[in-house]
């Protein structure tokens, strides 16, 4: 991953900076990190001894994805994730990457049938709860039947046997 | 055997005059990954082989591919790997990867599924011209069959999860391959390519390593995959490509009207060199074939069709050439064989209106 400030050197540290009114974490190279930290008040002796040059930079290289064991440094080097869980683990890095790559931030388009089924069921169940809370029992009965229908439909055609639903 | 190549070339590129002289072919590619399995790049060889053994038998028997053939990269010789690359059935990256990577492909090579490329699955459908809708229908049908059988990595907000964040969302890359020699000859190509980048489309040369496309073949594809649905992405691409094709057509007509000598020189020179050269490198061959392709499309050449040019453009590439000769050859030896093949295949070709010499 390139430094988000100079866009040239490799990023090696994380700093906090206010960008467009919101505080964002930026991944930057050591030079930019020092610059961002502002001019440092150091004594002449310290400078001459080189002690002041030894700036502690906040580290971000220690995280490892619990899904696949990919270390953060490795992810930054490859620019590719190791498994689906990496998208959660490295969300801090991936979110700005996605912002640069795509104009949208959420998926629009095809959804796997299985996923669609879960979504529909979740929606129906939420509606069912709501109608029970507001004591609309007739609506609730209809919703309950639809959920049963959905479940029966899914059971009738287990994966591998049902045919492409368009 | 997978590579009954000569016969297949025609089916894959089936282009005989008409609209296909500029928009050569189009492709829809869907990237999919299995849930709870490490992605190919980060997985070790054992894991990759497990995924391959899980997916390949199903793809061979149940996926509905007509006369499916399987090519396991690990067990192929170098020439066959090169051939598969040249036919865009496997990627270069995959060709170098050993066991666990492979492709299952239907007899007409229009529908293929790569296993363990950058993602676990890459479904690829190719159609002639700009028939993206048909390519999508074919790839989507395969995707639907696969998702009944295997559970894909899918995120509620981010959609299909892919190894590279640039493919996340639809996981779809739709592309059209276009032949843009007219724009090159009229010096308008760079402006057109720059405009495409601004429209957030990706343009890359189809052949050759560098940025300059050998044979003036460019692949234009959607850059973004997150935030628009598949249809919108394809519609946008077709809109823009339609415009590019129109500009290329105009450039060709302008050349014919305003500078016929430039056009004729380009075609005649290419033909003359092909018919006499004794040594020819791949990129050079592709450039001359590109000129002939334009010549056929503009009616300047006789006894040649665009389908022949496209077939030859495949057969002059190193893998195909070596398979044809039946032996592995040094590059210098290949250049001689290539020149011979070109001379032989294009001997009967003549410029229209010129005295025939055979």
Which radius of gyration of chain A do the C-alpha atoms yield?
26 Å
Q: Please count the helical segments of chain A.
A: 7
Biggest sheet of chain A, strands in spatial order? Answer: 1-2
CATH architecture of the largest domain in chain A: 2-Layer Sandwich
Looking at CATH, which topology of the largest domain in chain B would you report?
A: Creatine Kinase, Chain A, domain 2
H/E topology pattern of chain B: HEHEHHEEEHEEEHHEEHHHEHHHE
CATH C-level of the largest domain in chain A: Alpha Beta
Structural class of chain B: alpha+beta
Q: Strand share of the residues of chain B?
A: 15-25%
Strand content of chain A: 5-15%
Largest interface: A-B, 36 and 47 residues
CATH superfamily of the largest domain in chain B: Glutamine synthetase/guanido kinase, catalytic domain
Helical residues, percent of chain A = 40-55%
CATH class of the largest domain in chain B: Alpha Beta
Topology of this protein?
The complex is a heterodimer of chains A (166) and B (358).
Chain A: E1 13-19, E2 22-28, H1 30-36, H2 44-49, H3 72-78, H4 86-89, H5 91-101, H6 113-133, H7 137-156
Chain B: H1 5-13, E1 23-32, H2 45-61, E2 69-72, H3 78-86, H4 92-96, E3 102-105, E4 111-115, E5 121-128, H5 132-149, E6 154-155, E7 159-160, E8 172-179, H6 181-185, H7 189-198, E9 201-207, E10 214-222, H8 230-258, H9 260-276, H10 282-297, E11 301-302, H11 306-315, H12 318-325, H13 331-345, E12 350-351
């Amino acid at each position: 991953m390139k430094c988000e400030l100079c866009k040239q050197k490799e990023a090696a540290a994380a700093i906090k900076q206010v960008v467009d009114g919101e505080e964002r974490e930026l991944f930057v190279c050591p030079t930019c990190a020092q610059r961002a930290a502002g001019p440092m008040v150091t004594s002449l002796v310290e400078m001459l001894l080189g002690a002041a040059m030894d700036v502690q930079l906040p580290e971000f290289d220690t995280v490892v994805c619990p899904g696949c064991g990919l270390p953060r440094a490795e992810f930054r080097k490859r620019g590719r994730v190791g498994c689906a869980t990496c998208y959660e683990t490295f969300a801090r890095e991936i979110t700005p990457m996605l912002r640069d790559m795509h104009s949208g931030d959420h998926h629009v388009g095809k959804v796997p049938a299985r996923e669609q089924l879960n979504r529909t069921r979740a929606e129906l169940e939420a509606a069912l709860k709501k109608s029970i809370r507001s004591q609309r029992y007739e609506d609730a009965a209809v919703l309950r039947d639809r959920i049963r229908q959905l479940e029966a439909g899914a059971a009738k055609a287990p994966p591998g046997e049902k045919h492409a639903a368009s | 055997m997978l590579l009954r190549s000569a016969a297949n070339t025609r089916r894959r590129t089936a282009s005989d005059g008409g609209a296909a002289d500029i928009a050569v072919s189009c492709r829809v590619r869907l990237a999919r990954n299995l849930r709870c399995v490490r992605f190919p790049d980060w997985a070790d060889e054992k894991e990759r082989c497990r995924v391959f053994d899980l997916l390949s038998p199903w793809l061979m028997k149940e996926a509905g591919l007509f006369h499916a053939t399987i090519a396991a990269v690990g067990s192929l010789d170098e020439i066959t790997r090169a051939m598969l690359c040249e036919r865009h059935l496997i990627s270069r990256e995959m060709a170098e990867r050993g066991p666990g990577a492979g492709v299952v492909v239907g007899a007409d090579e229009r529908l293929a599924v790569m296993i363990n490329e950058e993602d676990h699955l890459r479904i690829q459908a190719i159609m002639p011209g700009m028939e993206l809708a048909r390519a999508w229908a074919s790839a989507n049908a395969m995707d639907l069959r696969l998702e009944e059988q295997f559970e894909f990595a899918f995120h509620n907000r981010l959609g299909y999860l892919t190894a590279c964040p640039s493919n996340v969302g639809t996981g779809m890359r739709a592309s059209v391959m276009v032949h843009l020699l007219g724009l090159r000859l009229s010096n308008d190509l760079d402006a057109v390519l720059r405009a495409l980048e601004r429209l957030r489309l990706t343009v890359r040369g189809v052949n050759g390593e560098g940025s300059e496309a050998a044979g003036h073949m460019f692949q234009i594809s959607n850059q973004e995959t997150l935030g628009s649905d598949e249809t919108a992405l394809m519609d946008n691409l077709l809109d823009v490509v339609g415009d590019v094709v129109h500009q290329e057509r105009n450039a060709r007509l302008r050349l014919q009207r305003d500078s016929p000598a430039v056009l004729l020189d380009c075609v005649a020179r290419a033909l003359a060199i092909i018919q006499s050269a004794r040594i020819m490198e791949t990129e050079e061959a592709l450039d001359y074939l590109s000129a002939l392709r334009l010549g056929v499309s503009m009616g300047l050449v006789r006894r040649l069709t665009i389908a022949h040019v496209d077939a030859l453009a495949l057969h002059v590439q190193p893998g195909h050439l070596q398979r044809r000769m039946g032996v592995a050859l040094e590059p210098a030896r290949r250049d001689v064989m290539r020149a011979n093949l070109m001379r032989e295949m294009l001997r009967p070709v003549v410029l229209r209106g010129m005295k025939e010499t055979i």
